[in-house]
Amino acid sequence: MIEFFYPKPQDLVPLRSGPLAPHLDSFAVCLGQQGYCQAEGRLRIRLVAKLSQWLVKKRIRLAQLDEHQTALFLKMRWKTYCHKGGELCTLKLLLRHLRQTGVIPVLRRSSVRSSRDRLVEDYEQFLLHLRGLVAGTVKAYLPVLRRFLKHRFTGHQIRLGQLRAEDADNFILKTSARYGRRTLQTATTVLRGFFGFLLQHGRITTPLANAVPTVNARGLVELPKSLAATQIRKLLRSCDRRQRTGRRDYAILMLLARLGLRAGEVAGLDLEDIDWRSGEVLVRGKGRRMDHLPLPHDVGRAIADYLKTRRSVGSSRKVFLLAKAPYQGFAGSSSVSELVRRSLVRAQLDPPHKGAHLLRHGLAIRMLQGGASLTQIGQILRHQLAQTTQIYAKVDLKALRKLAQPWPGGVR
Length: 412
Fold this sequence. Notes:
By secondary structure, the protein is an all-alpha fold. The protein is about 50% helix and about 5% strand. It is globular and about 90 Å long.
């Protein structure tokens, strides 16, 4: 495989030096499996050769190579070369490859962990196994907890007996100066859950969860942010479906606009989730919920058109892959939301709020305007609580006018 990236053997001679030299060929196979083209692969092999030479210069044995050493190498390299975003990913891939082949030791968690780390890990296991939260939700909660612990306990020693009700107030007050309402709501949720966890396990004796302040839920105050039907059509037309990337973007936008899927649900779709014979798609939603939704003909055709041109490299079973190597699935919901933002720019649309939820809200509003009830909308959007769907009641202005009382004193 290395001959694909370096057809002339003499070009490889300067690169074959240092402890990584014997592993360039196997790493080239790894790059080929990831779908890298010749030019991109050459750059990555050359980077690994530079790392190998740096190890010799610093007298670092190959067995000592880890994330710390690669970070030092890149820090030195970026002083003289412009920062390449793909270089960090390349070295992560290299370390994973070397560990899988047994060249360097498998990364293990340090046996010397701080009490803060142990506490966060205990809470993580509690959320995953006892509360049953999905990994994505837990991943969003843990940074909030780490910030709280760092705010409350400046040192490494955690003394839970010193926690007081005002600690939550002070943290939320500090957080409110830097973050928006939704982040504050997440922070209060995390603190209540954490304090409940501590009380349940006997680590504190005071029910501090009751002292966590409440952030105003303005969901029923604001109108849902959405795109009009004409704007959605313009957004879909902006995708160049002659290109593979355009077909992918079009299929994703169709799933968001026609089925009202969340960004994370689109990113998580596997090839096995689509039942072409029965015309259904399996959606893995919030709270480990799994729903079988009918796959409209136009949405199915958009997905099929993309799959015909999709790069079938690597072992990824995700429906939607990145447009460039490494050809793997989206990292999560933020990647899909970023795709929507790029599509809005391409379509020359500039709504106040941007993101995948615009299309989900748009579907609900179109259904309401078409005569669907709130119950039916909640079923399509797979809301677990009826209150979640109530936000769309404000959009039905005709029905709301019937409820409006005349202004006291008459019209002036």
